[in-house]
Design brief:
Blueprint lengths: L4 H7 L3 H12 L4 H33 L4 H21 L3 H20 L6 E4 L2 E7 L2 E3 L1 H19 L8 H21 L3 H18 L3 H20 L2 H11 L2 H6 L3 H16 L24 H34 L3 H26 L16 H20 L3 H6 L1 H13 L8
Antiparallel strand pairs: 1-2, 2-3
Helix pairs in contact: 3-4, 3-13, 3-15, 4-15, 5-6, 5-7, 6-7, 6-8, 6-14, 6-15, 7-8, 8-9, 8-14, 10-12, 12-13, 13-14, 14-15
Amino acid sequence: MPTGADADDVNRPPSGEGAAARLQWLASPVAPYYLLLGSTTMLVGVGLVMVLSASSIEAFTDSGSSYTVFLAQLRFSALGVIGAWIASRLPVRLLKAAAPWLFLGALGLQGLVFTPLGISVMGNRNWIEVAGQRLQPAELAKLALVLLGAAVLARKRRQLGRFSHAVIPLVLPAGASIVGLVLLGHDLGTALVLLAIIAGMLFAAGVPLRGMIIAAGAFAAMAIALVVSSPNRMGRITSWLAGSDACQSALSDGCFQKVHALYALADGGWWGVGLGASREKWAWLPEADNDFIFAIIGEELGLPGTLTVLALFCLVALGCYLLVLRSTDLFVRVATAGIMVWILAQAAINVGAVVGLLPIIGVPLPLISSGGSALVTTLVGVGVLLAFARDVPGGRTALDEGPTLIRRSFALLSTRRPPSNQ
């Protein structure tokens, strides 16, 4: 009978069984639910830690407390978690029915931006302020557009072979109205995210590719016209195209942010300077806790920190992808694709701007950057995904049995045959 190390070798499963078990778990109906829940929780946790670190210096300078921005972000996180929990318990049929009314509400709030309630922040008139509290209606518009677009495309599933049946109810007037209002407020970054959401939903619904190419060309021409007509946007494009040496000799905001974001990543190097030890957050890098928080992550946590954040977004994408594959409801598949494009496109634009691959257009990093409207709305969007994950075949039953399965797993892990001394 084997003893000592030999007994451990007998009890140890073959090396391939662990990988096979993980692949088998991905095939389970609860995989999308736990992938989305786990990756989102970790992203919010990383965001809270990094918002505290990145904002502490300027918060102390402005208010006398290093925790002002962090505590606000913590409150918004709690509010977002409550909203996500409520959304995750809503039936799919209720989400379908509420989609038009939610969109009309978002459209109305976006219209208030141009009333006395509206305020401008860094050149963008995309906020409203009531009783000292600010709200960015365009964030709510992202979720509203996803639900409305999914409902429209699901209802017209048999006519989607003709592009006009997607253009008339979704792109015009729904998409054009909300995108137009956002552009009137000079927020090109949010408008690009909204356009990406529309494109993602059209693709997921199976709209002919030829029509999508035509629409993409029209939107690209519109974006170029908006950039050329705005000295501020044109300056950002010029700063992006200019090299670091040319930027150092210029005094434009775009160049200043670009150069100091690259300084932060360069200072971080492979392993980072240590959590809380950033130099760029000492008023060198503007919007360190918001649009450029990824640069602070790279500076303090190094390459492992930035790769961890990117890996977590990849897990969000995997959870959404599995959900699209397993759902039998076109509304769920299209809405899931829309939310996935919303989160991933916004993350790609933010990270691309920080590392210099894209021009700076002022888009925050989802679930990580400071900002109440964006965080709460994105968490509610994840809650909608969790509601969809509960609705996949076998998902609700498996989740209801989850505690029992978890207890069984711990029992199996704790039950090991002791090595024999014989």
